[in-house]
Design goal:
It is a single chain. The relative contact order is 0.08. Helix content is about 40%, strand content about 20%. The chain has about 525 residues and is an alpha/beta fold. β1 and β2 form a beta hairpin. The strands form three sheets. Strands 1, 2, 3, 4, 5, 6 and 7 form a seven-stranded mixed β-sheet that branches. The chain has a six-stranded parallel β-sheet with strand order 8-15-12-11-9-10, sandwiched between helices.
Length: about 525
Amino acid sequence: MTELEYAPPRLGGSPEQRQAFMAYTRAFSGADFDRFSAYYTDDVVCELRNLRLEGKSGIVNFYRGMFATVRESLTLHHLVADDTGIAADITSQFTAIADAPHFTVAPLAKGEFVRVRVFVHYQLRDGRIAHIRIARAGEVSAPRRAEETGGLPRNGEAGDSRDTGEIGAVLRRARASSGPLKFTYEALPARVVFRAGALEALPQELARIGSRALVLCTPEQRPLGERAAALLGGHAVGLFAQARMHVPIETARAAASEVRRLSADCCVAIGGGSTTGLAKAVALELGLPILAVPTTYAGSEATPIWGITEAGVKRTGRDARVLPRSVLYDPLLTLSLSPALSGTSGLNAIAHCVEGLYSEAANPVASLMAEEGIRALSGSLPRVVRDPAAADGRAEALYGAWLGGMVLGAVGMALHHKLCHVLGGTFDLPHAETHSIVLPHAVAYNAAAAPEAMRRIAAALGTADPAQGLYELARSVGAPAALKDIGMQENGIERAVELAAASPYYNPAPIRAEGLRRLLRNAFEGRRPEP
């Protein structure tokens, strides 16, 4: 059968499209080149560990050559999919059909096989695979003979996962306990439109949630707010350009009063986390739906989490009413984000992913998104800082930020976020900069108590030590290193310790005043995180 004779169904998030992906893995495992390559775009790119394959023919020619001596079979363990991409946790089994002493994964004699766990992200375009990134998530097993295990595992079954890293370890512990793996995952009902130029779809998206919108933004982003209002025409009943960091309750009350005065039936929040946070405060009080247009990497637009600061204390909570109904992600709107703010905002998004991996409510779906989010952001942020006008880097960073927001909305956070809420709300420190400074130290604090999460963080960063890797990433993007450099006074450390210890979030490591004091002292001075 030729490629022209086979037109596979589109890939995506629906049950039928997920089954189409299973058909793709079966075709790949069966070395059906015409069939599996029909799922690719012509300009598809595949990034392997030390190799980049370009174009459909480039991938087919590579695997045709490899499959002449070594066949690869895919076994799928976990899958997350939507219309923009597929994240898959897979075991690859490489079986030699002829002697392969120079095979790059491991030298193999005829009849031997090795297995390795991999995390694969497939970026989709119009239902076809446009980009494949493969990251190793486990060590290569020792070579074995096929007759020792009865041959290959069938596609879709777990097979032999004795060498497969964190998810395999979780499954083994669960099987050894009283029952199967248990978790709760609640999908959040939000619509996402992600593409360059998505802002132009603002009128059509507004029609889904309302007809009389109050546009919200910060004073600095008034021109962008005015642009959004102009696109909406008569459906924009006003512009409230007073959003402020940490959502002071006075600002929230003023915005709610403006909603009432203008009889608005929805809010359009265009800007960063401060603007989205203000829209959430209004929604919490009045129940109005939100259409969010993020211009930073805050991720707040993907969560049902609100925060309001009153009398120097920031209160947070979860409420389904504040989750934006629709989100427009337009990478072009982030082009004007300065390199400095791009770096710190992106590190804030990485913090969502990091804490999601050791959250009390961590689950396989959120963990896959978290690891992919760390990978996307850590790879794109240095590019964005070097070349702020690079649209591909901006899109990758915004994609990672969306994943971070999804993780933040799906699972609870821990010590890092508690400290940042205390520091921001009590001392009025800038939100993103505070996250970028505290994160490496919070990770070091939790390292011994969450080893499996640390391995996944390190793998996504491409580093041996996650805390040191995050510290180096922050330096590479020009983020500030010390709390004293962003306005905190030394005499505030004891107050921060007192507030953080008084009502702590869940955390894998015990919350102890002396440990918090040491963590905050290191962050205040800008020292490297302690092991």
